[in-house]
Amino acid sequence: MVAQEYALAGAAGLAGLVLADTSPDLSMYLREGWRIRLRLPGEVRAVLDRHEEAGTTDSPEYAAAYQIYLNRFTCKLRPVPEAILRGQAGGNPEISRVMWGGGGRSFQVDGRLRGWSVLSRLGGIGVPTLVITGSDDMASPAIAATMAAAIPDARLVVVEGGSHTPFYEDPQGFCGSVSDFLTELDAAAV
Prior knowledge:
Elements: H1 2-8, E1 17-20, H2 26-37, H3 42-54, H4 60-73, H5 82-89, H6 93-100, E2 129-134, H7 141-150, E3 154-159, H8 166-169, H9 171-189
Parallel strand pairs: 1-2, 2-3
Helix pairs in contact: 3-4
């Protein structure tokens, strides 16, 4: 999100952009979150639905069901890489609550980011751009394809089998794609 805003602000000296596992529009992101949620087992969806309707998303049962969602669409690796755990432990829940909202889950945004979108302005990104995502990412291939189509000089890479952390799940595929893109940028600059 920050990179998109930065590029659209006309960042001096920006030669290229990598947009990984992101969305240009939170409404689109939420719709995709609901859509991929349908890929969960029915009993898991039922637990999520029941607690969301009752307002009990702080319950252990909801947390366990939500963890199944995260395991499939956020990071598939077990154990979860240490760097991710450190990032989660070092996060500031108050900032997250203010920015994303009180629910703290991927199915709603009622904080300050509610309504955020740069979708209609993506055509203003004037540098070569790599849009890359995992095939099972919450920021789905459909979102990534929309972004790549809207940015004039963009290419799309979908890392098969990757979730929101394809750089861990397929480091060769992800890093190879980024490396190829950066090598092409360097060659074009000469």
